[in-house]
Amino acid sequence: MASSGGFFSDLKILWHMAVTGGRGKTHEERLENFYSGQADGYDAFRKRLLHGREEMFASLPTVPGGIWVDLGAGTGENAENWGPRLNEFSKVYLVDLSTSLLKMADQRIAARGWKNVETVHGDATKFIPPEGSVDVVTCSYSLTMIPDWFLAIDHALRLLKPGGTFGVVDFFVARKWPAEGLKQHPWSTRTMWQAWFANDNVFLSPDHIPYLQSHFETVSLHQERGTVPYLPVVRAPYYRFVGRKPL
Q: Is 136 within 8 Å of 106 (Cβ atoms)?
């Protein structure tokens, strides 16, 4: 299981974020290079950085006997956010390309005694479960780390049964001229956060929300800002989206 963190654990993670940046020839190599040295402290640090996950999962419906797929599942912490409702699924697939993070997920599954949860070392744009179609798909701070994030959204749409639910929470920047009802960010927000996160191969996009809304029926959308560890003054923009596949 992941460690509870602490100052020195945070320093280790910050060093990886600032120095390693996730190098490698392929996307999988870059992910593993970035996360292999920080997997044990991953959850504790990101709990203070990745906001809105608990709220998103609280708003998602479960389907008794249904199937949930988490694309870019990391250490499997998202499964904790269902609470007892996790047991309502007949099968859960935690999909990720990082073997180091999936190792932590396997430890979590064993520690919790989850019999319906399985890790999958696979591509979020390609994984298809044996059952074919599923009831719920989620991407929790993973779209910004998938180079062809639009393919991941397209794939989630294909995986879902008609009426199925797609939940996304992630960082973003707004378009310069957003559609009515969407946030408008100043130039400083649009440029600074994209550059800051790109160092770690996290690519904030102004197109996530419009693309999601063009492919799914919007159930709920929240555009907010969250704190960043050791940077008490700044707030990073993030969104929570819950959509439904049209019938």
A: no
